[in-house]
Amino acid sequence: MPRYVTMADVAREAGVSLMTVSRVINDKGEVSTLTRQHVQEIIERLGYRPSNIARGLVTQRTGTLGLVVPDSANPFFSEVARGAEHAAYAHGYNVFLCNTEESTEQELNVLKSLDEKRVDGLLLCSSRLDKTALHQALLQHPVTVLVNRWLEGDGVGAVLADDRLGGLIATRHLLQRGHRKIGFLAGPPNSHSGRLRMEGYHAAFAEVDATWDPEWMEHCTPMVDGGQAAAYKLLTAHPELTALFCFNDLVAVGALQACEELGLVVPGDVAIVGTDDIPLAALVRPALTTCRVSRYELGKQAMQLLLKRIEGCLEECQTIILKPELVIRESAP
Q1: 274: phi then psi, degrees, rounded to nearest 5
Q2: Mean pLDDT in each 10-residue stretch from start to end of the chain (333 residues)?
Q3: Is 245 in contact with 194 (CB distance < 8 Å)?
Q4: Which helix (DSSP H) or strand (DSSP E) does residue 244 occupy?
Q5: Residue 90: its H or E element
Q6: How far apart are CA 171 and CA 19, in angstroms?
Q7: Are 87 and 299 in contact (CB under 8 A)?
Q8: CB contact at 8 A, 199 and 166
Q9: Strand ordering across the sheet containing 94-99
């Protein structure tokens, strides 16, 4: 089994002290140019690489970050993760990507595990924990940025898509097209984004002094099968509905499937609007009208905010809000 080259090996081969080798590695002064060059040549020849563990004992940092998502198979979160990872790698950090599979129990386990790994910072996407549980879990993580979640007064950074605005402009679009009976496939009941999109949905009705029926809303898992089941149930119970606003694009694709099963034409019988603008939204037929926020940018800006907070920027590095835009396609022209 190969043995790692140590600082002691370098010192012995170079004929200098451990302190001298340390000063060369960490680019400290008090070492002559000739000695520094000699030690660096030995380092290269032996193939010595500094230990992150040893370096962490000095710097109190591990060079690692935690990135937690509720579903890594969801194209929304995979793109958020890509943006976050690219930003982290550009600053020399490695990332532990953790998937909670939409389980609050798994989320708590993951947060505990990342604490035990002593990550330098935590990026937590769309946490499904309630406010009290989330607050308690984050006490063990000194530097945290939340994505699509906000904890008031907890000293935690946040990068958010304006989900209330997304719900407003999606529903407003349908109302402007003459729809007045609009169902809402609301996603998981513990989704912070879902609650804000619901607020926007209600606000759009208020703008035109129209009424909405609480029976027009159905919670669902944020996947295609969840959207299919919820849309089928809602449209069967309420055939008067002429449009659906969906928690995300995967749910909207499920709604398309439900309409096909029920013999309903989209958008002739039922118009459908999604959220996120994942690549699939433009590929299905009819292509989805949806609310777009750059998922890559969401992850990138969240990671950049986390890195700034790790370096001590707190009061000026609090919250970033990204505005959604409506992308009009065939499902709700």
Answers
A1: -105, -165
A2: 71 87 78 87 83 53 89 90 94 93 93 90 92 89 90 81 96 97 95 93 96 96 96 97 97 98 97 95 96 93 93 83 96 96
A3: no
A4: strand 243-246
A5: helix 75-90
A6: 67
A7: yes
A8: no
A9: 94-99, 64-69, 121-125, 144-147, 157-161, 319-322
Cβ(27)–Cβ(55) under 8 Å? Answer: no
Whole-angstrom distance, CA of residue 69 vs CA of residue 48: 36
| Residues found in the chain | 333
d(C-alpha 45, C-alpha 39), whole Å? 10
Q: What is the distance of C-alpha 296 from the center of its chain? A: 9
Q: Whole-structure pTM over 0.90, yes or no? A: no
Does the CA dihedral 314-105-190-70 come out positive or negative? positive
The β-bridge partners of 66 are: 96, 122
Q: What is the largest CA-CA distance in the chain?
A: 87
Distance CA 309, CA 311 (A): 5
pLDDT score for 190: 86
Which tokens hold the place of 285? 């037929």
